[in-house]
Amino acid sequence: MGIVRREYILGALLVCAPGCKGTHPRPATVPSTAVWVDHTFVDCSVDRQSKADRCTVFKDDSGEVLAEGLFLLNTSHAAADESELRYAAFGHGVIYLQDARLLVPWVASGRDPSHRLIDERLRTLASSGSKRAIRCQTAETSTSDGADSECALKAFDSHQPFYVCFYLQGVDSFGYRCLAGDENGNVYEVDYDSAGWMNQPPARGQLLDNSHTFVVPCRKPVSLVKYKDGTLGCAGSTD
Description:
2 domains; mainly beta
């Protein structure tokens, strides 16, 4: 995971006064339990099994999902109790609480927009030719049993375009380490961090998606390596 960028300017946040729940027009897709604050609807509950808060953040005018998954308090890395779920704002992927603490993302759900963003980025990189890219993905938040890596290695060896992504869990953010290869043998490492990257990419790389995504071409001749945890990466440096 990269160095996390945060802009905690809590003093400038507008705190929703008690009773504001339900006072704003609510899109049909937004549940009645969601609280309107800072141009969003926030809906959290305590997930006893995972010991985290299960939250969904909706855009207030359309109901679009802005974030969804399991969240933890930045101070204790534990769930906030129901009585503590008093929201002040949403921004930079985190939920600001009225007591100045934050709910930070821990595990993204399938509806979290990060999945769509990274998937579109990988498909674009892999589909530079006429062949359709193979999506080597059996699960959204796990490395499976190594099958995803084997799929990507087989596609690379047979000169088939492919992309594969591995979910990474940080302390106060989540991310993906991904590879995308085209039919011409070019392979790109794509690293996503939900909190954003503060450091700059290597000279041949790009920092995209509002500083959430690194895209760096693998050094040629490209060679892929399978790590002990079952994930896949480029052999050697991408500098």
